[in-house]
Amino acid sequence: MITIKDSMILIHLAKLAILPESCRHFGNVLIPEKVYEEAVLTGKERGYPDALIIEQEIKGNLIKI
C-alpha cells in the first residue's frame, strides 16, 4: 500500500495518463480526505479533466480515501 499525501502527484499522474497503471503497480493507494477535496472536488469545480480521471480511479477502488 502507498499513501499519497499531496494532490500534485495524483494530478500529474492523471495528466500523463499513467494514473491507472501506477495504481495497479503499487496496489492499494490511499489518499487523505483533503487530497480528495483538492484534486477531485475543487478540480471538478474548475473544470479540470484530470479531476474526472482521479474520480474514476476512486470509483474503481484503485484509490481509497
How would you explain this protein's 3D organization?
- The protein is 63% helix and 9% strand.
- The model has no long low-confidence stretch (mean pLDDT 94).
- The chain is mainly α.
Number-wise, the strands total: 3
- Measured by DSSP, the beta-strand proportion falls in 5-15%
- Please bin the fraction of helical residues: 55-70%
Residue stretches low in confidence (pLDDT < 50, at least 5 long) are: none
User: Biggest sheet, open or closed, and with what strands and sense?
Assistant: 3 strands, parallel
| Backbone CA Rg | 10 Å
Spatial order of the strands forming the largest sheet: 1-2-3
Number of domains: 1
Distance between the termini: 13 Å
How many helix segments?
4
N to C succession of SSEs: EHHEHHE
**Arithmetic mean pLDDT:** 94
**What is the structural class?**
mainly alpha
Shape: globular
